[in-house]
Amino acid sequence: MEINPIKNFLENLLKISGFRDSFLEINEDFSEKLIKINIRTEDSGILIGKGGENLKAFEMILNLVSKKLIKGFDWYIVLDVNSYRTIYEEKLREFARELAHKVSVSKKPLELPPMNPKDRRIIHLEIALRSDVKTESIGEGEKRHIVIKPVE
Q1: How far is it, in rounded angstroms, from Cα 40 to Cα 61?
Q2: The pTM is what?
């Protein structure tokens, strides 16, 4: 996959946005048609934003522009800053393992607070690795959350 137009666009976008001292680490996953770009920068807090909102916005822009830059582009780009998302996702998986253990021992269901779809997916996938507990999403919209239940 020729991603130089995407790389150049992102580097220019970062410079225009004031992130001049940044370095891109790019990994391509051909089986999933996924490009992971980790931006190394000292200004990570501003680039990430509260709850990752700025990072999500940059990622959305990059995915939209990539389809315009490269004809027939059907890959998905995941943007990270100083491995923020990678670290966050690992903490979420660890949280899921701890809660699954708690439910397994207590044999009582446990309701988690509402989460966004990506976070729920990580929890579901982590707990699916176990045979003693299961997950279910309940609720609508912003109130949608996971219940971890013991397997009977």
Answers
A1: 19
A2: 0.79
For residues 122 and 92, the answer to whether their CB atoms sit within 8 Å is: yes
Place of tokens 């997950």: 135
**Cα separations in angstroms, 58 against 9, 33, 81, 85, 89:** 12, 19, 11, 14, 19
pLDDT in tens, 77-104: 999 999 999 999 999 999 999 999 999 9
Residue range(s) of every CATH 3.30.1370.50 domain in the chain:
87-150
C-alpha distances out from residue 7 to 12, 34, 86, 93, Å: 9, 14, 20, 30
* Contact between residue 30 and residue 74 where contact means Cβ atoms under 8 Å apart: no
